Amino acid sequence: MGFGDTAKKIQTLADRAERTYKKISELRDEVDETQETVIDTSERVQRLENEMAEQRAVLDAVAEEVGVDLQRVSTEAHITDAEESASDGDGDTSDDGSGGA
Fold first, then answer.
1. In the chain, how many domains are there?
2. Does residue 53 surpass a pLDDT of 90?
């Protein structure tokens, strides 16, 4: 009877080890896929940043040629965005849909 219990425990342990090995293998595959995705995304971001830098250079050259102050335009746009964000925040608290009652 002692040998049967030992064999059963060993089999249970072997089954657990096999499941654990499979799970670790699956996790390793997921990590590999995630790393590939991160690398691909990083390369894509780098390409987009390079493209944006090129577009910015073209925009700067065109703006200079036609006499537009991009710094001023950018500052005004940021101010407008900040004002809109501030007013949106104020509007959320006063407009609760209760109709004032």
1. 1
2. yes
Is residue 53 a part of any domain in this protein? yes
pLDDT in tens, 58-101: 999 999 999 999 889 989 999 999 999 998 876 555 444 444 44
* 92 falls within a domain: no
Question: Under a CB-based contact definition with an 8 Å cutoff, are residues 60 and 49 in contact?
Answer: no
Per-residue pLDDT at 8 exceeds 80: yes
The alpha carbon torsion through 70, 72, 77, 80 (nearest 10 deg) reads: -170
The answer as to whether 93 is a domain residue is no
**Residue 101: inside a domain:** no
Residue type, 73: V
